[in-house]
Design a protein that fits this description.
Blueprint: H1 6-20, H2 22-32, H3 39-57, H4 64-84
Helix pairs in contact: 1-3, 2-3
Length: 93
Amino acid sequence: MAEEDPTIARDIAWVDEQLADPEASFETLRSEFCFLRSAAEARRFLEDIREGLEDFAAGRTVPHEVVVREMEERHRRHRSSALTYNIGMPKGH
């Protein structure tokens, strides 16, 4: 059995601390991740991070290209929604 990476264990412990009280950690997280708009979003974000850390610790990884492609797709969908609903766009655009 492989020895657990102490960095991963430390990161998981940090995420668990944040998940223990996402309301309290929301402002701290928001200063780093400005896209978070609520404690509920912060909690989902933290849960996703924890899941990724657990996958990495277990040797389940995703190729970098897949991650980049998914990020680009999310960005495209967000931009498309913003244009469709004229969110954050100056009038006339």
